Amino acid sequence: MDWDKLRIFHAVAEAGSFTHAGDTLNLSQSAVSRQISALEDSLRTPLFHRHARGLILTEQGELLYRTVRDVFMKLAAAEAQISESKEKPSGLLRVTTPVAFGTVWLTPRLKEFVELYSDIQLSLLVDDAELDLGMREADCAIRTTTPRQPDLVQRHLMTIHVHVFASPVYLKKYGVPKTASDLDGHKIIVYGEDPRPPFPGVNWLLEAGTKPGQRREPALMVNNIYAILRAVENGVGIAAFPDYMAQESTKIVQVLPELEGPTYEAYFVYPEELRNSKRIAVFRDFLVRKVSDSQF
Q1: Per DSSP, which regions of the chain are E strands?
Q2: Half-sphere exposure at residue 117, Cβ-oriented, CA atoms within 13 angstroms
Q3: Do 83 and 90 contact (CB within 8 A), yes or no?
Q4: Which residue of 15, 21, 89, 228 could cross-link 278, Cys pair, CB 3.0 to 4.6 Å?
Q5: What would the 3-class secondary structure string for 62-109 be?
Q6: Considering the chain, what is the average pLDDT of its residues?
C-alpha cells in the first residue's frame, strides 16, 4: 500500500469528508477523492460508504483505519522521542489533571515552570474523565485514583487528607459545631450523584457522628469539588474536601479538626514509551518539588 495514499486515507477517516480532509492536507477535494479511489482499487474493496451527509467507514475501512491510526500514533511517539534528544527540553507537553486539583492547586504554581522552561509549550487539560494516555490523548497525567491502564509509569505524589470546612460568615450565622453529631443542625454540602466520584466515600460527612444506619439530608449537592469550595466560601454551608484546596483559600476555616474523612492518593503517570522524555522528567521533578514545598 502506498504511504501517501494511507496518509490521505487517515485524514479522510478523521475528517469524515473529502473536503475537510483536503483543507487539512492542502489538497483539492477532487485530488483527495482520486487518491481514495485509487487506494480502494488497489485493495479491491470499498473503504467508505458515500452519503450526502458525509463518509462512513465500511467494515474493511474500519479495520484499515485502526491499523493506520496505530502506525501514526507510533510515528508521533517516535518523533517526540527524537525531539527529546536535544539537550534542552522543548516541544508540546499535554498534561491532564482532575478539575479540582488542576484548577485550585496546580494552575497557580505553573508560572515558575513556564518561566523556567520557555521552550516547552504546556497544555493543561483539566478534566475529571481519565484521558487515554496509551492513545496519546495526553502525554502525562495527575491521577487521584490508582491508575488502571497497563504500561504506565507511576510516581506517587502525595496522600490527600480530607477535613471539614466552613466560612466565618456561615459560622457566625449558624454557630460552630462542637461535635460531629452537631452537624445534624447544619447545612451540609456534598458531592452530587456520579458513577465515578473523585474519591471513595466522598459523602462520608452525611453519616459522621450519626447512629448506625442513619444519614443526614444534604442542603446542596454539586458534582464538582471546586464548585463545592466556592459554595462554602460564600456561606452556603459546611462541606468536606481535600486539605490542598483549603490551603489555597483565605475565605474558609476548618471546623471539627479531629474529624477526618477517607484519605486517597495522587499519582503522576505517563506511558512507558515516554520514560526518557526530558519534558516529562522536568515536569515530574517540578511537581515533586512543589508537593514537598506544600507540606501535605
Answers
A1: 48-51, 54-57, 91-97, 120-126, 140-143, 152-160, 162-166, 189-191, 220-222, 239-242, 253-255, 264-271
A2: 21
A3: yes
A4: 89
A5: HHHHHHHHHHHHHHHHHHHHHHCCCCCCCEEEEEEECHHHHHHHHHHH
A6: 90
- Amino acid letter for position 75: L
Flag the least confident range among 42-51, 139-148, 151-160, 195-204: 195-204
Domains and CATH numbers, the chain: 3-83 (1.10.10.10), 91-155+269-294 (3.40.190.10), 162-262 (3.40.190.10)
Cell of 18: 473529502
The neighbour count for residue 166, using CB atoms within 10 Å, is 25
Q: What does the pLDDT read at residue 35?
A: 93
Query: Is 282 in contact with 219 (CB distance < 8 Å)?
Result: no
